[in-house]
């Protein structure tokens, strides 16, 4: 389970831009390829597959980004979108109440009338891609300092996005690839009327719970179906993936089209060491603490447990991922390989006088950036309002009211003209807020900031004003009206003066901390981000010069194509199989005597005799994926869907830094398993009919 | 699968006596306890279990040693003995012909008349145990050199064994425990009329083959049933384990009574380093080479494949074990722990002037012994006739004819008066010899000796006489009459002069190599064995002095009691369950699309609907076992049998050196699974009736 793109995605924002450094030696099934630089040659040489523009366009237009951190795809001509239960989990949680727990019990709309609208789900479909490298880099080149260059780049990006938005009406994002070696304008069709159609019980979607998460063999029906509406009716989705109910077979070439969140494969050795020795251990400590708080809260009763459930899953998932990554970095073999690659890259740059003079200084710049980052790492991390939703919304409102007054190019990231619509959509979400949980989370994070920064830190002083964290948290949560989306809307519309004058305790607190937050952000931008951006661009260009352009960039939560073979791998002394079956689900459940998290929903016992137990359930392939790819379709040569990515194996966690074809596996739900379950267990024949409408063509 | 006690057991013979060195810190479920020093206190404290003499006596007398390398137990009052298919494999192979492949296809005697006699299977039941430490140590104390002391010990042991044999008629073995800190006379009731009753297909006994071997979760019906006869009729086995068809459950306290072959938990750090850097890598090279030879031979056709099958299994098993052990030793954590323990032990010895002066020199003696051993390690290993059976029998005959002329105490190990009956039984086995396979194995081992020792080595010169290994091998195998057991019997009876004058080419070759073989054996005894024996005794005594006597000795293929809990363990990022079910068998088979070694015997598809798939099939416990324990019963508090040990998990391979309770697991077939399979798949209701005759009492 890879909810974690959400967690992952907050990471670069805190620790600086991801960098494209060092050499890439692409061979085998490695790579998360952009659709404008697809692995045409690799597929031809390795698989004899002819990757056509038609195939690529079709797959791209059928692929969907879940803006809250996952992927999906259109699977019917009437707007049906398939993703994971755990990607849908955020919405399921928000749609649930103390009376109806869709997140736990699942949901099935037998008619369109029963489909229910998600409170704040935005889906994106990538419509076009345009190279804007020259514009962005030219803007920076005229500047004399790195800080000015960073500013100029950001301003130019904002300008491009705004122009594009105005001219096309499409969501327009400039994406930095190859550490700034390239910039691309991605335009997205945006959908915000997205309705829930089907979700199974969480028990079966997440069978095996935290223990089985990120492992294989696996037995999870981690699926959910939404329907995209436009103008009140289902969208006619011309580009959708045909359902292949036979599904993937061992040895098949398969593709994954989705939105990997982030990778750190090209970080320098020094950066990886900092990750290993500072950032990851700190993240793990922070998350362990938050997990404890959530679990303590959940123990108060069934309703608190329900409220905390999604966040607990999310954090357990992130923790397991981070620990796997840390284990990877602690493996001397990995570091040795990274050192060797870096040494080779540096040698190749040094050999060429021109390259050396232009780019050779990048490693020192990065070392400097990193040394500076560590100087104020705690403030960077703990001078934030985090964990709870209300104070975060308040701070967003306060910053918003000031940022929108500035010229677009000078605003903080996240407040550019082109980003405002999505920001407003999230900010005005009608999703429920749980006040008691808010108090716990805010009190805990304030306590943590106090412990980490001490009472004399500017942020701590401003936020606590000498009081106890829990008092501050209670006062804020109990006093604020921000739980009401209408109140947020009013503030948003009234703008700067209204927010500056608001007596709402959340807004007041946000105003108090604003200077300290801005100060550390500015400091980070000047001392860290500008250096890493400049060095990143240098190394990106050096890499192009040395290794050519047939390489893939780090993941950026933008659309990528991966490919691989359905195959097992050596595991713990034996072999992991290419696929699993329903037999295995019942074995694992019984082998733990049905104790949670290995218990099964009732229907799985009641209707067992109707199931063809040998039906494939989950399967693995060597396709190169990472958090954010959750919900991605697995696609066959014919462009039909044969599976649904929902996880990576434990051996793939190190994939954040390095891809090992022998053991790195993407785990997917098999289309045969989904078909069998929908039909035999959920009485969802109508859905199967819609999916398999043209199964005959798809299986060709 | 742990056939390997056979391989294991040849190891100490080559590399010297196993030593009991360093401290033992027994806690938790660790330990392979002798029945004369059982873990009474641990069981009381940890499990509240009162281990009585009655319980111990009953279990001991129901326990059976398979002299060709495994364990078993009486499970009915009429001589039925349960063991593993892979322990029975040697006999199954010997009973098979090109027409009837019992090893592959299984066997079931529906009536007593159909039960077939094993050609050379000797079973032992431990009747009594007597401490003879004083006699043996006193004999040695009077000597002035270590070589003389060794000789005196051996002579005294032979005397004790002979006396006991004469007075009791029982097989009498003096066992060295605690590295010579104690000597015990074990008397065995010996059975040699052992008839095959039931074996399933090898496919299901060894489901998952080499990949799944030594791993878990597992799905193997690794069982076989023999019946012990005496005087032409089934023996009335008063002491047998009652069959508990419910079997073990998660959380249960269980016991394992069996014959662990050898362990090296108390070796010094220097010895472990030699193991890691020399012995294990050499063994792995040697076995890889033999495996290749066997596989090449097996590829000639189905009959050659049948002939080589058992040895291939055996070697694959040993290789996987050795590789696991080597991995363990290459783990710096393990070595660090061993160093720490050794340092603590030495400090405790050094603190006590008396101990230091008596035993403190042992470490240096061992270092010397080891340095000397490495000087001629290759000759020790490669100056032997190995791999093929005919030359080995010839050499045994030649040595036998001379050794029996000497006073008992001066003979080579293996030729003492008390050992002759078992030796003759093996030597006169009617088991088939496969001449073509003999040629391949002998030629290969001669080639290997030539390559390792060079053409001028005394052994190589004597054996080859300048000819090519394959020529020598062909001449020997094609010319010898040793394939005929009657011919061997004649030679054995005619004795020294007949063997000295024989023109049989195998005997001639054995005579030629005899001096070189004796020379290196003698050298090894003087330079290595006598030192390690003396140092071992010192350290054994030092350990008693420092840590007391409530410790268990290294495994010695004698009867031991282990105990533990039925429980899963953390594995590869998730949890391994306490048990598996038949569901899992079908899952694993299908998950590999029924490709060997994951294919199933026909009846498993045909009769699947009749099986209760949720029936437990295999399970794990924390009982401390090792190679040789194969076939051991798993016993509950009431003394009933609840399972059948057949393997350890991959994490237990390091158990040769260290026991980790968190991950070390013994794998067993569940009695419920055996009952279900016998009844529903094999139509062996009569057997189930015999087993479950008094199931009601057993489940109490």
Describe this structure in words.
- Two copies of one chain form a homodimer.
- In chain A, 49% of the residues lie in helices and 15% in strands.
- By secondary structure, chain A is an alpha+beta fold.
- Chain A has a domain at 5-122 and 192-265 and 554-698: Thrombin, subunit H (Beta Barrel).
- In chain A, strands 1, 2, 3, 4, 5, 6, 7, 8, 9, 10 and 11 form an eleven-stranded antiparallel beta sheet that branches.
- In chain A, α7 packs across α23 (505-547), α16 crosses α23 (505-547) and α18 (435-453) runs antiparallel to α20.
- The two termini of chain A are 31 Å apart.
- Mean pLDDT of chain A is 92; it is low at 1-26 and 695-700.
Can I get a quick summary?
By secondary structure, chain A is an alpha+beta fold. Chain A has a domain of 337 residues: Thrombin, subunit H. The first copy, chain A, is built from 28 helices and 20 strands.
Could you outline the blueprint of secondary structure elements for this entry?
The structure is a homodimer of 700-residue chains.
Chain A: H1 5-15, H2 40-47, H3 53-62, E1 63-66, E2 70-74, E3 80-83, H4 85-95, H5 102-105, E4 107-108, E5 116-117, E6 123-131, H6 133-141, H7 146-168, E7 171-177, E8 182-191, E9 193-199, H8 202-205, H9 209-212, E10 224-230, E11 233-234, E12 253-258, H10 269-298, H11 302-330, H12 332-351, H13 353-359, H14 362-375, H15 377-382, H16 389-403, H17 420-427, H18 435-453, H19 458-464, H20 469-479, H21 485-494, H22 496-501, H23 505-547, E13 560-565, E14 569-571, E15 574-576, E16 579-581, H24 582-591, H25 602-606, E17 616-621, E18 633-635, E19 641-648, E20 666-670, H26 671-681, H27 685-691, H28 695-698
Antiparallel strand pairs in A: 1-2, 1-6, 2-3, 3-10, 4-9, 5-9, 6-8, 7-8, 9-10, 10-11, 12-13, 12-18, 14-15, 16-17, 17-20, 18-19, 19-20
Helix pairs in contact in A: 6-7, 7-23, 10-11, 10-14, 10-18, 14-23, 16-23, 18-20, 19-23
């Amino acid at each position: 389970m890879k909810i974690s793109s959400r967690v992952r995605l907050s990471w670069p924002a805190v620790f600086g831009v991801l960098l494209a450094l060092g050499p890439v030696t692409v061979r085998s099934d490695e790579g998360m390829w952009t659709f404008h630089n697809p692995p045409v040659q690799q597929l031809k040489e390795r698989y004899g597959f002819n990757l056509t523009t038609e195939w690529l366009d079709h797959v791209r237009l059928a692929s969907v980004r879940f803006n809250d951190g996952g992927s999906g795809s259109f699977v019917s001509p009437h707007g049906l979108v398939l993703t994971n239960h755990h990607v849908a989990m955020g919405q399921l949680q928000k749609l649930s109440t103390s009376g109806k727990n869709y997140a736990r019990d699942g949901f099935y709309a037998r008619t369109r009338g029963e489909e229910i609208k998600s409170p704040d789900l935005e889906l994106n479909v990538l419509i076009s891609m345009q190279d804007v490298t020259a514009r962005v880099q030219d803007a920076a080149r005229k500047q004399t300092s790195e800080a000015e260059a960073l500013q100029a780049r950001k301003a130019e990006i904002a300008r491009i996005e705004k122009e594009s938005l105005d001219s096309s009406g499409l969501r327009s994002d400039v994406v930095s690839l190859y550490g700034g070696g390239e910039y691309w304008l991605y335009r997205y069709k945006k959908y915000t009327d997205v309705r829930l159609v089907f979700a199974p019980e969480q028990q079966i979607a997440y069978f095996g719970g935290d223990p089985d998460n990120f492992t294989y063999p696996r037995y999870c029906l981690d699926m959910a179906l939404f329907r995209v509406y436009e103008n009140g009716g289902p969208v006619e989705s011309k580009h959708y993936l045909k359902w292949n109910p036979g599904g993937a077979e061992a040895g098949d070439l398969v593709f994954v089209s989705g939105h990997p969140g982030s990778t750190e494969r090209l970080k320098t050795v020094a950066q990886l060491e900092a990750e290993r020795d500072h950032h990851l251990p700190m993240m793990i400590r922070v998350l362990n603490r938050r997990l404890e708080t959530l679990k303590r809260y959940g123990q108060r009763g069934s309703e608190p447990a329900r409220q905390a459930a999604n966040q607990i899953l999310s954090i357990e998932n992130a923790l397991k991922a981070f620990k796997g990554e840390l284990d990877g970095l602690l493996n001397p073999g990995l570091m040795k390989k990274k050192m060797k690659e870096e040494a080779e890259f540096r040698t190749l740059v040094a050999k060429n006088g021109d390259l050396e003079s232009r780019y050779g200084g990048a490693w020192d710049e990065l070392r400097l950036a990193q040394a500076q980052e560590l100087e104020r790492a705690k403030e960077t991390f703990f001078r934030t309002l985090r964990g709870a939703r209300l104070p975060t919304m308040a701070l967003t409102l306060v910053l918003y009211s000031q940022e929108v007054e500035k010229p677009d190019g000078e605003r903080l990231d996240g407040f550019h003209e082109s980003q405002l619509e999505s920001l407003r959509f999230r900010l005005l979400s009608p999703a429920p807020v749980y006040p008691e949980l808010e108090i716990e989370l805010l009190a805990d994070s304030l306590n943590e900031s106090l412990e980490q920064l001490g009472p004399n830190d500017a942020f701590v002083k401003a936020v606590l004003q000498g009081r106890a964290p829990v008092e501050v948290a209670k006062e804020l949560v109990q006093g604020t009206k921000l739980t009401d989306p209408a109140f947020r809307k009013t503030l948003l519309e009234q703008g700067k003066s209204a927010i500056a004058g608001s007596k709402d305790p959340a807004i007041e607190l946000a105003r108090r901390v604003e200077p300290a937050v801005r100060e550390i952000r500015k400091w980070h931008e000047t001392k860290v981000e500008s250096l890493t951006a400049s060095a990143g661009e240098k190394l990106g260009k050096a890499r192009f010069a040395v290794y050519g352009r047939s390489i893939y960039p780090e993941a950026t939560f933008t659309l990528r194509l991966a490919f691989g073979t359905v195959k097992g791998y050596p595991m713990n002394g034996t072999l992991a199989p290419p696929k699993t079956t329903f037999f295995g689900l019942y074995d694992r459940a019984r082998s733990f005597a049905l104790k949670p998290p290995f218990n099964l929903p009732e229907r799985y016992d009641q209707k067992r005799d109707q199931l063809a137990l040998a039906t494939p359930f989950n399967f693995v392939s060597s396709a190169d994926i990472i958090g954010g790819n959750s919900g991605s379709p697995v696609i066959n040569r014919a462009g039909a869907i044969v599976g649904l990515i929902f996880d990576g194996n434990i051996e793939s966690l190190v994939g954040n830094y390095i891809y090992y074809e022998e053991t790195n596996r993407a785990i997917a739900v098999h289309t045969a398993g989904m078909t069998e379950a929908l039909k035999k267990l959920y009485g969802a024949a109508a859905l199967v009919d819609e999916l398999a409408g043209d199964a005959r063509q798809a299986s060709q």
